[in-house]
Specification:
The protein is an alpha+beta fold. It contains 14 helices and 23 strands. A hairpin with a 4-residue loop joins strand 14 and strand 15. Helix 2 crosses helix 9. The structure holds adenosine-5'-triphosphate. The site of adenosine-5'-triphosphate has 16 residues, from strand 10, strand 13, strand 16 and helix 9.
C-alpha cells in the first residue's frame, strides 16, 4: 500500500507544530525551558514509535528463520568501547566561534567563518560523542562508564552466548532495538538528530567470501521495508559512502536516504563491518569468538553485515511522507495517510449525538472493537470536526453510530483516504475492519455493493 495522495512537501515547522498540538512529540522537560535535542513522545507518538519498532521486529525477526532477537543492557563494560574503537575514534571535528562561542561540526560547514555571526573560528579539535557517567559510589577514573552510542556492540559481545544457546548456522542474524546516546555537536532538525534516540540494528553474520552478496541483499530488503510501509519511492534513495567517508570499522557502506525538508539525509546505514568487531573483542577479552564451519572443518571469524536504522528518524520520515493538505468540500483538510500498521489509532468510534440510547450503543460498539484494535471514542463537537481530528492523526477508519443504527443494527464506516462510506452490520464490524486494516481495498466486497455505493 503505497502513499498515492498528491505530494505537497511539508516544512519542518508545520510538522513540529502538528506533533505538539496533537500529542505526538513534545520538547523534553518543557516546563523548565526544555532540554536541547531531547524529545518526549506523547500519547500518539508513543503508539507510532511502537508501531515502527514492531513492524521492524516483525520483518526482521518473526518473519524469518535466520534471525533471533536480543536485548542487551545500555551500560556495558568500559573495555567494550576501547576494543570497538569508540573511545579512540568516535569523534567529530569541532570548531568554536571566537566571538559568539557557538560550536559547530567542522565537516558540516560550507565556509570558514561562523554561520551564525560571521566570526572567526578556532582550529578543529576532535570531540568524542560518547556520554560518560560513573558507576557505583566511588567517583574515580576506574568507575567511568559510557552510555552506549550504538546498540551493535551488545550484539557482538553476546555472539558466543547466542551461538551456544541457539546452535545457528551461518548465515544468521541477531537483531535488537534500544536506546543509544550521542553528545552531538550540532543536533537539530527536530528529532532527526537528537542526543538520546532509539536504534533498530541487526548484525547479520556471513561467510567472509559471501559478504558483498549479502550486503546487496540487505540493501534491497531494507529499501523495500520503507516502501511496503507506504513511503513514496521518489523520496527514497540509496547512496554509497565514498572511501573518505567510511567509518573506522566499515569495508563498504550505503545509506538509505530520505528527502527530508532540509534535503537528502540518512535514514538508515547498511554496512559491511567485516570481522572488525569480533576480532577486536576477541583480542581485548582473550575469548575465542570464532565460528566452527562443519562443512569446511574450519574455525573462522564471520563477517557482519549491519542494517542500522533509527526508530525516531523513521517515525519522522513516515510522518512527513504521509502529510497532505487536501480539498474537503469548501475547505482544506489536513490528513496523515499513514500506513494502517503505523497509524497510532486504527478506529475511532463517533456517536452522532450524546443522547441515549445512542450513547449506550456506541459504548457497546467501542467495547467490542477495543479488544482488537487501538481505538478512540470521541463524542465532542460536530461530526465534521471529529472526522477532521481523526484525519489529522492518521486514523484509517471512523465508525459512526447514528439513530438509524438503533433500528437496523448497522453503523457507518468512513475511510480516511477516500472519505467514502460504507454501512456495516455491527455483528460484522470486527471482521470487516480487520480485513480493511490488513490491506483489503475499501470499496470492494459484497457489503460495498449492497451499502457502499449509495453512501459514497
Ligand atoms: P549521521 O551521519 O546522520 O550522524 P551516523 O552515520 O552517525 O548518522 P549511524 O551510526 O549509521 O549514524 O547510526 C545508525 C542510525 O541511527 C542512523 O541511520 C539514524 O537512523 C540513527 N541515528 C544516528 N544518530 C542519530 C541521532 N543523533 N538522532 C537520531 N537518530 C540517529
Amino acid at each position: 500500500m503505497t502513499n498515492t495522495a498528491p505530494t505537497k512537501k511539508v516544512d519542518m515547522d508545520t510538522m513540529v507544530s502538528l506533533c505538539k498540538r496533537r500529542g505526538f512529540i513534545f520538547q523534553s522537560s518543557e516546563i523548565y525551558g526544555g532540554l536541547a535535542s531531547c524529545w518526549d513522545y506523547g500519547p500518539l507518538g508513543v503508539e507510532l514509535k511502537r508501531n515502527v519498532r514492531e513492524a521492524w521486529w516483525q520483518a526482521m525477526v518473526h518473519q524469518r528463520d535466520d534471525m533471533i532477537g536480543l536485548d542487551a543492557a545500555i551500560l556495558m563494560h568500559p573495555q567494550t568501547w576501547v576494543a570497538s574503537g569508540h573511545v579512540q575514534g568516535f569523534s567529530d571535528p569541532l570548531v568554536e566561534c571566537k566571538s559568539c562561542h557557538l560550536r559547530w561540526r567542522a565537516d558540516d560547514l560550507k565556509g570558514s567563518v561562523c554561520p551564525s555571526c560571521g566570526g572567526e573560528l578556532t582550529e578543529p579539535r576532535m570531540f568524542n560523542l560518547m556520554f560518560k557517567t560513573r558507576m557505583g559510589p566511588v567517583e574515580d577514573e576506574a568507575s567511568v562508564i559510557y552510555m552506549r552510542p550504538e546498540t551493535a556492540q551488545g550484539i557482538f559481545v553476546n555472539f558466543q552466548n547466542v551461538l551456544n544457546t541457539t546452535r545457528k548456522k551461518l548465515p544468521f542474524g541477531i537483531a535488537q532495538t534500544g536506546k543509544a546516546f550521542r553528545n552531538e555537536i550540532t543536533p537539530g532538525n527536530f528529532t532527526f538528530r537528537s542526543r538520546e534516540f532509539e536504534q533498530m540494528e541487526c548484525e547479520y553474520f556471513v561467510k567472509p567470501e559471501t559478504a558483498d552478496q549479502w550486503l546487496k541483499y540487505w540493501l534491497e530488503e531494507r529499501f523495500n521495508w520503507y516502501l511496503k510501509l507506504g513511503m513514496r519511492k521518489e523520496n527514497l534513495r540509496l547512496r554509497q559512502h565514498g572511501k573518505d567517508e567510511l567509518a573506522h570499522y566499515a569495508r563498504d557502506c550505503y545509506d538509505v536516504e530520505y528527502l527530508f525538508p532540509m534535503g537528502w539525509s540518512e535514514l538508515e546505514g547498511i554496512a559491511n563491518r567485516g570481522d572488525f568487531d569480533l576480532k577486536q573483542h576477541s583480542a581485548a577479552s582473550g575469548k575465542t569468538l570464532t565460528y566452527f564451519d562443519e562443512e569446511k572443518g574450519e574455525h573462522y571469524l564471520p563477517c557482519a553485515i549491519e542494517p542500522s536504522a533509527g526508530v525516531d528518524r523513521s517515525a519522522l520520515a513516515f510522518l512527513l511522507d504521509s502529510y497532505a493538505e487536501e480539498p474537503d468540500k469548501d475547505e482544506v483538510r489536513v490528513v496523515l495517510h499513514l500506513h494502517p500498521r503505523l497509524a497510532p489509532v486504527k478506529v475511532a468510534v463517533l456517536p452522532l449525538s450524546r443522547k441515549e440510547p445512542l450513547v449506550a450503543m456506541a459504548r457497546e460498539v467501542h467495547a467490542g472493537l477495543r479488544c482488537c484494535f487501538v481505538t478512540q471514542y470521541d463524542d465532542a463537537q460536530s461530526i465534521g470536526r471529529r472526522y477532521r481530528r481523526q484525519d489529522e492523526i492518521g486514523t484509517p477508519f471512523c465508525v459512526t453510530v447514528d439513530f438509524q443504527s438503533i433500528e437496523d443494527k448497522q453503523v457507518t464506516v468512513r475511510d480516511r483516504d477516500s472519505m467514502k462510506q460504507l454501512r456495516v452490520p455491527i455483528a460484522e464490524l470486527q471482521k470487516v475492519l480487520s480485513a480493511k486494516l490488513c490491506g483489503e481495498a475499501f470499496d470492494t466486497g459484497p457489503l460495498w455493493a449492497a451499502h457502499g455505493e449509495q453512501l459514497a
